[in-house]
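Box 3.1 A note on notation
Throughout this textbook, protein chains are presented in two layers. The first layer is the amino acid sequence; the second is a token string describing backbone geometry. Keep the layers aligned when reading.
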Amino acid sequence: MRRLKLMLLLAKKGAIGEKKRMTVRGLAEELGASPQTVLRLLDELEEEGLIHKVITGRKTYLEISENGLKFLEELCDEVYDAIYRGIIIGEVISGIGEGAYYVKHYAPLIEEYLGFTPYPGTLNVSVIFPKTIFDALCGAKPITIPGFVREGRTFGDVKAYRVHINGIEGAIVIPSRTIHPPKIAEVVAPICLREALNLRDGSKITLRVIK
């Protein structure tokens, strides 16, 4: 674990594509280890071909090697695949009251494209994990509900992502002109989720993206 933390520390210090001058003492302080431990870790990383190390007098120059960069990239991919599996954990919050208005206008199209008649309202979920809803939706294919013009007003396209909410199938909807930040998921479903699942503001909820 400390070797990985040391490599990440070198990356943060810009030791990618060029050798950066660093002090063992400085690295030790940031790593929370002794200078002797850092020296040993650097020697191990160099032996494995993960870093390049050049010592000139009292100056130490360090660079993450191509093999080291490949190792970090593969690790990032593995971590991403392990934790971002279409799971959204959040808590229920109150919206600003516009959900019912828009669902009413989009209802025929939601039924056509998603296969259910939506309850006239949305469930708003403040995302706790992952960082944004887009991290969980990565790799999921959206269903585009086309926009339309009604009574002189333009309603834009909406991207919908099918989800399961405690066994109930619904969808996260993302209007082309949304006012919500990427930490808020708007969910439509064929029933009132608050009543069906006994939810209130602050209730924890898990959404599972159907990919």
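The chain is about 35% helix and 30% strand. The mean pLDDT is 92.
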